[in-house]
Amino acid sequence: MDLCKKGMKTLLLERGRDVKHVVDYPTANLNPWDFDYRLNHTMKEIQRSPLQSSHSNAGDALFYVDDSEHPYIENTPFSWIRGYQVGGRSLTWGRQCYRLSDLDFEANLKEGIAVDWPLRYRDISPWYDQVEQFIGVSGSYEKLAQLPDGQFLPAMELNCIESHLADSIRKHDQDRLLTIARVANLTKGWDSRGPCQNRNLCSRGCPFGGYFSSNSSTIPAAFQTGNLTLRPYSTVTEILYDEITQKAKGVRIMDTLTHESFEYYAKIIFVNASTIATAGLLLNSKSHRFPDGFGNDSGELGHNLMDHHSSAGASGLHDGFQDRYYKGRRPCGFLIPRFRNLRSEGLDYLRGYNIQGDGERQEWREKISNPGFGADFKKQLTTPGKWSIWMAGWGECLPYHENKVSLHPTEKDKWGQPLMAIDFSFRDNEEKMMKDIKETSGEMLSAAGFKEIDTFNYHKPGGATIHEMGTARMGRDPRTSVLNGFNQVHAVRNVFITDGSCMTSSACQNPSLTYMALTARACDFAVNELKKGNL
Amino acid sequence: MDRRTTIKGLIVFVSLGISSFSFYKWTAFNAVADIRELPQKRVLLAELAEVIIPRTDTPGAKDAKVEEFIIKMIASCTDPKTQHNFLNGLSDLEAYTLKYYNREFKDCSLGEKTAILTYFEEKALYKVNLLNKINNKIFGLPFFVKLKLLTIEGYCTSQIGATQGLAYDYIPHIFSACIPLTKNQKSWATK
Fold this sequence. Notes:
Chain A is an alpha+beta fold and 535 residues long. Chain A has one domain: FAD/NAD(P)-binding domain (3-Layer(bba) Sandwich). Chain A is built from 13 helices and 21 strands. In chain A, β8 and β9 form a beta hairpin. Chain A is globular and about 80 Å long. By secondary structure, chain B is mainly alpha-helical. Chain B has a domain at 33-157. Chain B contains 9 helices and 1 strand. Chain B has helices at residues 3-19, 23-27, 42-52, 66-76, 80-101, 110-124, 129-139, 143-156, 159-165, and one strand at 176-180. The longest helix of chain B has 22 residues, at 80-101. Chains A and B meet through β2, β13 and α11 of A and α4, α6, α8, α9 and β1 of B. β13 of chain A pairs antiparallel with β1 (176-180) of chain B.
């Protein structure tokens, strides 16, 4: 959209089908009983797409890929959750929007890990402003250095049990607080979209435009400029390098329906195929200049894969507030911002985590295994039960060179493209952090009077948080990074990468807002460089 | 899992195998129920569901046609082991009812129906949660557990169940975070 608004004729290539706002959300207004199997998947659907179906339901499965059509190789367990359609995962994302801070941008340098980010908070702050003001993020101002405030629409509200936990946390520890999540759901009408109707069905696509997706927001805006051409069913198979001009001249695509190849040429190229696919595309784009993959002078392309862990936490029940309930289905939970390793606290791990969770009263799904049946059973089944809270830590993952994606040497998909192979594991720092998350979450609930506390560690594999990042990292030195401080490929200045692959560290904040801010900044830079004749 | 729990799990593995041996297998070796016969059990399923969620001051399982949901789910959304348990369990219940009450389930009194289901619920469950988890994983869900889960889900996600047995808020518009709970207020049908 930014390129279009700045007057650039822009071709948007998407490997999947088009999804037009509202008209292509067939399940958005359905009631549970309108589905053949209510919200369950059939055994056939699970067999066809075992991984994606574990993350989707009957309402949003249409925005997830078919595993059988898009295989990949797990050298170690890794959940690659994707949606191949126009709008991608902006249709199904969790909408949490948190800014990174200098605590995050400086961490690699201070701790001697990986490479230094080639920018600081003051470089990206105006772009966070711009993005938040365009998409609309609701949130509350907390004045935390480690989680900078943004440009917020009115915050959503905590319910009674969450407010109770917030009070308890503040009482027990001045350095911690519980606040409402910051989400790209509109609490008032914004840019001719919304407001959110509190149905909590976002991942089906929202006919009210109540949350940000490319489909509802930036793509229509780009079309309005008259400068956008959208070509779906176009999988990019190679970035074309011109050895003479030493620039990228364009891309080759394969039409996924007809398997025909086409080439498109452009002055600048933005590669945002998402972390793993972007790395795969670059690795597959070999030339005399780049025998190891496009822009891969450093050898870091494909390496340093990270994902947040979100496996550890606690849940509990509370006897109080029996005379209170809520109305409406708030499409977000609460947040306990990072309170670990803000100073040197002598913990046995580096970096930190946010805790995300929600509170509710037990309803029929939570009572489904209660013993008994009959009139009394039905009465308690249909009456609100005890208040409960569930929360887990979304924690930072360090960049490890050995965590990587690569192209399989022989196996190909049905379009003749090499399959991606993934090697990933969480290591000691992450495991120690998860142990702390589990214990600390349990303590906080206990201190707030919760009972039947269950502390857990689901030990989910990498990829399960769907925040995969790092495979084409930014850095100051072309020998140890793929991109420079403006997301340009060091060696090929007219190619920009602003998706998750660019991340030099993972921080613990949900990353999409940062991708958007980096994108806006890089687009502005790219257009200015073009005008100056530098590209 | 620590070693003690694993050993406990291994020890009960054997005893579970023995105790899930059903009454049915004693009385009739031959007929193993077929999924295609399940629609014919429609009336029985409706009766069973109605005992679990009866019509009270709000509609019950029969009103919500829960038996149709159960049939569809067993046919298309259930793993083979659980399907097997369900079909066998259903036949087991029919045989048990005939033997001890001399009539079909639908002709029993409410007290008798309740007694029959109580028997099958107790048979399906172990007092220790861990044993249930192991049993379910190895052998699929027991018949009564699956019947009850499907009945409740079928009722609560049906139009009648969600809008009359529970409170269904199609488009809430605003979120009210903390409001008084009124007497006899029903819980929300969806999250």
